[in-house]
Every structure is written in structure tokens, then in C-alpha cells.
Amino acid sequence: MGGRNEHLGEGQRGKLNLTQLFKYNRSVYYGRVMDISTDGTKRIKVRIKGIDDDLPTNNDLPWCHSFLPYHFNLVPQVGETVKVLLMDADNPNAEREWIGPLISEPVKIARDPHFYISRAGREGGLVALGKSIDTLETKKQLFPQPDDVSLLGRNNSEVTCRKEEVLIRVAKHMIDAPTEINKKNPAFINVRLLKPSDLNKKEATSTKEKELGLSEERVDTVILSNKIFLIGRDSKSKVIELGDVNGLTKEQHLTLEEKLHPLVYGDILLEFMELFQTWMLTHIHEGDRLGTDFSGDTLKMLDWFKNRLPLLISKNVYAGGDVPTTESSNIKSQ
Fold this sequence. Notes:
Elements: H1 10-13, H2 18-21, E1 28-36, E2 44-47, E3 63-66, E4 81-86, E5 96-99, H3 139-142, E6 149-152, E7 157-162, E8 165-170, E9 173-174, E10 177-181, E11 187-194, H4 206-212, E12 218-224, H5 250-253, H6 256-259, H7 266-282, H8 297-307
Parallel strand pairs: 3-5
Antiparallel strand pairs: 1-2, 1-4, 2-3, 4-5, 6-7, 7-8, 8-11, 9-10, 11-12
């Protein structure tokens, strides 16, 4: 029954300092990342104060393996702090596993400097936590909420699972300003389950449900970005030659507009086709003043207008954005 109960709060464990923390008979230590393997194994070399003091160089440090399964790809940066698990406390060089890195606050996800700062707010820490995100107006827009299950990238990227919703986003905040919303060029893919009960009570009429297609549950996918490229190819296609399985290189990406076709707005095309139909039916030739010859191909066209024109635009796929200007359009005015 010896030792203090470390889970009962400050009153049970008393005041602790950094030196006392290292006197515990422990098997988990804080350490500083000194080197990272280049063979893809996620092994690192970590220096533990009080354990590795007699190892003069980083080459003398034993390799430390990832505690998480290999398919979770997370590697700390040199200089960051990790927790090191010793399989044998009496033989600290025998087998080590790491988990981390330590990130003290959400705003420091990109990098949290070693030890003192990364341990801010922890027992024995010498640095206080910074400004709480609870005081930020942007908290709900930029940071995971208690019910979210999120995977945060090091640099302004995120995958978040919420109730009946998945959000993948990039550039959510301004560069080097993790508390400022990026309103200029954020990008996201949002998949959401919608139900009739999601409608506002004032809107929850049968007419409104019909207009929105919410007479029953549906799942919507929204993609927002400056540019959106949809590419269909077979294994022998030369339209896009993949450099590797990681996707396109930046050089390939920047040439996509030269190789792909712009998307047509279906409702505008439908409007043109309806105007063309009216012109075809009412057009009078200037020379002989004859009207439309309702035979042969004309009858085929009329049949197409009747049966196929209503199918021209999709009921389930919508596209839009900034209307192209004359300067940015490939279509020249006559």
C-alpha cells in the first residue's frame, strides 16, 4: 500500500517539483527526441534525464520503438518530448517504446518545444498553460469539440467524425495563426446525414420537405475548394500520368487546367436548349419566307426535346461557384 495515490488530486500528493518526479519507482519517463531513424520503422532515440546521463552521445542511446501499432503513422520531431515506456525498469536499455509527442495546448499542434513548455500545466511543470481556447470566439470553428473524434494534422489539416457527419478540411486557419479563421480560401469535404427532423419547425411542412427532398433521410456530400478537379481514367490513360501512389506532384497539379475540361452549368445549358427549341420551331427563312420543315431530322429533334431534354440536368448533383468572366473564359466574344 506504499506511496501516494496519484489520482486523488493535489491534496493527496502534496507539492511536487521536477526533481521529485524523477525519484518515483516508475517505468514511464519523459524524454527528449534526439534522433529519428530513416528506414521508415518510426524508431527514435530519446534521452531520459537521470537514466541516460552516462551516455555521452546520441549514438550511444538505444533505439526506442513506437508504442502504437505501425499503421498509425505518427512520428515526433527532433527536440520534442515523448513518453518512454521501459519494459524492464531495472534494465532501461533493454527495450523501450515511445508514445507522443507531448502537446500541451491545441494551438501548438504543429510543434510544442521540448520538455518545460510541452509539459505546461502538468504536475511538476514549470510553465503555466497559455490562454484557454474557451476564451476564443473561434473555438467551435477551429478546435475539436468534446464529442468529436478528430485526427489533426501537423499543419492546418483535419479529419473529424461527428454525430452523423464526417468533415475533412485543409487551411481552416490562417498561416501561423491557429486561432484566426481562414475566410479567404479554406477547403473541405463534408458528408452529412440529413433527416426530416433537421428542418426548422416553421419549415417542417410537407411542401418544404418535398422541395428539399427531405421526406426521408438522405446523405449529402459537399466539396468546397478554390478549384475542384474530377478525373476519370483507365490504367492506360495518358490524360494524367501518376508519378506515384501518393497522388500528383505539385508540377502535375498545376497543369490540370490545361488537360481537363471545365464543368458545364446544367441549368444554364437547359435554358439555352429551350431557347434553341423555340428558335427552331418559329424560325422563318428570309429568302423564301418558309418556316420549319416538320419532317425527317426535325421530327427526331422534337422527339429528343420532348423525351430527353428533361433528363439533361441531374437531380442529385449540383455544381456552382464564381461565374466565369470574359477574361478568364476560353470563349471569346464575337
